[in-house]
Structure formats: structure tokens, C-alpha cells
Amino acid sequence: MAKVVLVLYDDPVDGYPSSYARDDLPKIDKYPDGQTLPTPKAIDFTPGHLLGSVSGELGLRKYLESQGHELIVTSSKDGPDSVLEQHLHDAEVVISQPFWPAYMTAERIAKAPKLKMALTAGIGSDHVDLQAAIDRGITVAEVTYCNSNSVAEHVVMQALSLVRNYIPSYNWVMKGGWNIADCVARSYDIEGMHVGTVAAGRIGLRVLKLLKPFDTHLHYNDRHRLPQAVEEELNLTWHATRESLYEACDLVTLNCPLHPETEHMINDTTLKHFKRGAYLVNTARGKLCDRDAIARALESGQLAGYAGDVWFPQPAPEDHPWRSMPHHGMTPHISGTSLSAQARYAAGTREILECHFEGRPIRDEYLIVQGGGLAGVGAHSYSKGNATGGSEEAAKFKKVN
Ligand code: NDP
To answer: Where is NAD(+) annotated to bind (predicted)?
Structure first.
């Protein structure tokens, strides 16, 4: 019998939903590159229902308890008195979502002698100290592709809303105004702009494809170059360095994982390479950016707007400067946890658990760390090391109801 600790975000403040806005979800057969959707033996949830908050339990309780395992579900994840800390001593599996990450630092891994797997119900395992997992032989896995397209939609939404000045214009409506000049004094068309992505993996490439019909000029930088046919189809300009991409673009979007190579890659020095008045959209990870340098660039006008849904730490404390800096369009970390995405990553989490408990191999595309080294997707997209430093600040967050 294993203890599985599942860390999820809180239920809605007005209670777990008893009905939903729509009756079903569109059917998707496979991901754009042909990868199959998750294939668990069964699911015990209704796709389209809220699964990612505590009461939703990712639909895992029936399955795990029927196998004799113990399931602890909690949103209490930060600080020494958290429920997560209380269960580390005998947990075999810790599952969490990047939206509400259970930071598995080296200290916490040391307190979890029985831990065999840190499972990310989503994509992005930077909340786990990968070096500590490598050193301890712990498996780190995530549900690759489950919400990549969801995030790409969010990137396009936020890119358009910054360029067109949507949120301030909406706010004038809410205030009872009709202040057209106030709204349009910062409003442009994206048509004709140069748009670049740092990383053209699953999300970055999708963003490029979605933006192509807007008649933008598309740019990218990545450690590996895309096939020539893709570059030609999208008329892409490849940049060997990120700085060269920043210099060429009106709007930059970050779509690479957070790992030691990318931490704080946007800072006071690299921001000098951006065109004055560039827009930056970051739905990848907050820590790709130096928090205070972003606020300074918005105040000085070096950036015309910043949007995204990722912060560091998460949840962001009330006094996090990104809540109050000018010209931002931030949301909490939601892009990858639409009801549509939840159904996919809940099924993927179940698939990975089935493999773990039945001794079957976990799909290579889901692996980040295994057998004492980076593995699968992790070996391609991450670098060794740790990016969890400073995560203890998440304990400063106070719930708002
Ligand atoms: P992929 O693994 O498909 O793509 C990641 C890409 O990043 C790869 O092409 C990789 O390059 C590239 N990359 C890695 N390091 C660098 C670097 N130093 N410079 C330039 N490119 C680099 O992942 P996804 O596209 O699905 O997701 C990307 C990230 O987005 C995740 O790691 C996660 O942090 C974030 N994310 C956010 C979500 C949200 O809800 N906001 C949800 C899902 C993901 P290569 O492989 O060629 O080395």
C-alpha cells in the first residue's frame, strides 16, 4: 500500500460547482504531432467537470483506494506546518499542478525517504529540485502535451489584448464611461508586427501557427532548429541568439521551460535589447524574468505591456509588484487548467499512476527524470540543476475570499 499525496488548488470561494456553462467538451483525437492523448485503462470522472481543485481530486480516489492505496488531498502546501509537510515522511508519490505547485525542494525531498515519484499533473516540473531527484533516483514525470494548445490560446489572447489595449477599455465600460480616446491612445493592430517566440516546442510552434493568419512576421529562437519545411510554411526567421530575436521583434513570447539555463533570462541587461515599446507575453514560468526588472521596464516605457499567467512564487504574495505595475494584463496561473485541459491531464495522471503501480514503463514522452538522470522529454528540454530557490516565499500568500 502506498501513500499518494495530491496537492490541488482550493475549490471556488462560492463552493464546488453543481452545474456547468456547457454540457460537453469538443472531442480531440490526437495532438498536432500525432502523439496520442492519455490512455488510462479507465477514468472515474466526467470530462468537463472541475477536477483540479480539492473536491475534484483529479478523479483519482476510487481508482487509488480500490488498489489499496491511501490518498491525501490538500491545498495546504507551503510552510513547515502545511499538510504536505506532515505527510512527506511516508509519501511514495507526490502529485501537484504547476498552477498551485508543491515545491519539492532538496530539503523536502530529504524529509521524504520513501518518495519514488514526483508527478506533475500538467507540464513543467521546475517546482521539483531536479538535481535532488536525480541524486535520489526519484522519477519525475509530467503529462506532456496535455495543455500545450490551451496555453497557446492564452498567449494569443493576451498578445492581442495588450496590443489592442483591451483590459483598460473593458474597465472604462465597467466604470460607466465611453472614453474612446482614453482607450485608443495605446491601441494598435498586430497586423504587420514582428512577433517572436523564445522556444518553438509544442506551445511556441502552436503560437506561431495561430498568429500566422494575422499577417504578422514570425521569428523564433530555440536550441534546436525546426525542420526546413516548417520554417518555409510559416515563413519563419530563425535567430541564433535570443538577443537577436529581441532586437527584431515588436512582441516577444516566452515558451521555454524554466531550468538553470533559462532562469532570469529576461533582466535589466537583456531588456536593453528589446525595441522601445515592445510587448512581452510569458505563460511559461515567472522566474524566466527578473521580477523587478519587468516592473522597471514598464514604468520607463521600455516595455509597452507585459502579460502572462505565471509568477514566482505561486501563489504570488499580495505585494508582488506584478499585481500593481503599469500596463500589465496578468491572470493567475490558469492558461493550462481550463476544464478542457483538466480532463486530459487528469487522465494522463491516472495513466502514469497505473504504469507506476503495475511496474509498466511510463511513456518516454512523459519522463523528465528517471534512473538518476534526465530522461525522455526532460533530456531534450531541460538542463540538470535546481530552479526552486526562493519558493519558500509562497508561504506569505494570504487567501482572499
Ligand atoms: P516543449 O518541451 O514542447 O517545448 C519546450 C521548448 O523549449 C523546446 O523546444 C526546447 O528546445 C526549448 N528550450 C529549452 N531550453 C531553451 C533555451 N535555453 N533557449 C531556447 N529554447 C529552449 O514544452 P511545451 O511547449 O509544452 O511547454 C513549454 C513550457 O511552457 C513548459 O516547460 C512550462 O514551463 C510552460 N507551460 C506553462 C503552462 C501554463 O499553464 N502556463 C502549461 C504548460 C506548459 P529543445 O527541445 O529544442 O532543446
So the answer is: 148, 202-203, 222, 257-261, 283, 309, 333-336, 381
